[in-house]
């Protein structure tokens, strides 16, 4: 049958643009005037969750009411207020709580302040004033890296959820940033600016991985060589365990590999690195490549019970990146962190860079300190985020930092992990609905975050119908045809797994952003396409 212009266009650009750009073309196809389906669009291509954490948001807005009253207390003239005063502000907050027993999340708000005062031993007035002045947003962030009390609360959260290691408490510096995406941009720029990565250097990336992490290193600005560390296993029913063999990890023994970038749990497979993998990487660093710099994006860690970041085993070598966007449903807030241990490989390597670079770096950071050589890497990231010269205006906006602190305190105070269980149940329930509708028995994997699922159609074909059918599929069809048919016939948009450097015949399904019943529809539509392939194969054998 002759292809139409839309199909030809889809096939022409497949594999040549980012999967996220390709997704936009599929959405246009799925919602176009000529589409065959009259169903609503089901876009499972992006990972924005369809839930939000309500209570810590209510606490934020209620506290905003208190903060405005503090501003008006100082100066109240028509639409103008003053800057809140610190003296006695804790007692005034307690009075506010007493007088507003029915305000949204007032109990949580009171417990957050008590957590700081009673468990963290914060000065009462200093803590409440930092939050009040912060939520008003009437001052530049100070310290520019992160507000002091907020940093302590966020640190507790990262220790609890990312398991940075109980023996390391209090030894991390955190930079509050505009989500994990800005964190990665800042880190890449500072590694380049400080000559820790130079054009032509090798870096390893554990794949499949979030596509931009494959695209950033090869930009002309950086010019890095990528060594892929490829997840593998014996897939059953098209489901892969997505762990790394020792043979793949052995690539990291090469001392010419300067850095390792990893998303853990992975994206799109959404599976956490197992203990054997973490231990083997630690052994490689100890015995073969001690200067390896690791950047670990741990955004999906909260969806795995007992999750351990690489920071837990390799704090000296690792920068921890975390985003609040997925767990709390705050992609619009842009909240994230960069965490670096006080004793780290990055500071060590700065002292060892060739003399030919040190003069330029002294000039770059000379206006920040009379001893620029001693500026730590985490503080260089802060300065670089504002082109150094604007360092005095660096830092995440203070209202964002206050909301971040409220999210963290909310999780820390949730001793029964009720919110965590709820979000994990949502993802795993949708995952089961998807595979049930495909007619596939789901393999239980405690390391599976179930935030995404990557389904390998070719592996499914080989395991269920043999090598002949898999060969027929490869010879007669293209993976893009699956994505095209889903969009055109069912108004379903999925992403190609190959765009994340996963298997060519795999598709990524976000399990977070649609209602439960949508995943049954997606599974059923994908199953119908699979059945059409089977029918065509059987027909070809009879010819």
What is the C-alpha radius of gyration, as a whole number of Å?
26 Å
The total count of strands amounts to 14
Overall average residue pLDDT: 93
The N- to C-terminal Cα distance equals 19 Å
Which regions are unreliable across 5 or more consecutive residues at pLDDT < 50? none
Continuous helix count: 21
- Strand order within the widest sheet? 4-10-9-8-7-5-6
Quick description:
With 543 residues, the chain is α/β, with parallel strands linked by helices. 48% of the residues lie in helices and 11% in strands. Strands 4-10-9-8-7-5-6 form a 7-stranded mixed beta sheet, sandwiched between helices.
Keyword list:
single chain, 543 residues, three-stranded antiparallel beta sheet, globular
Q: Would you kindly provide a written description of the structure presented here, covering whatever features stand out?
A:
This protein is 48% helix and 11% strand. The chain is built from 21 helices and 14 strands. It has helices at 5-13, 19-31, 55-74, 89-99, 106-119, 124-136, 148-162, 179-193, 212-215, 246-249, 275-287, 310-313, 325-328, 345-352, 355-365, 377-384, 398-413, 418-438, 457-476, 479-490, 516-542; strands spanning 42-43, 76-77, 80-81, 172-177, 202-207, 225-230, 257-263, 293-297, 318-323, 336-341, 452-456, 492-493, 495-496, 506-510. A seven-stranded mixed beta sheet has the order 4-10-9-8-7-5-6, with helices on both faces. It has a three-stranded antiparallel beta sheet with strand order 11-14-13. A two-stranded parallel sheet has the order 1-12. α3 packs across α6. The longest helix is centred in the C-terminal third of the chain and has 27 residues, at 516-542.
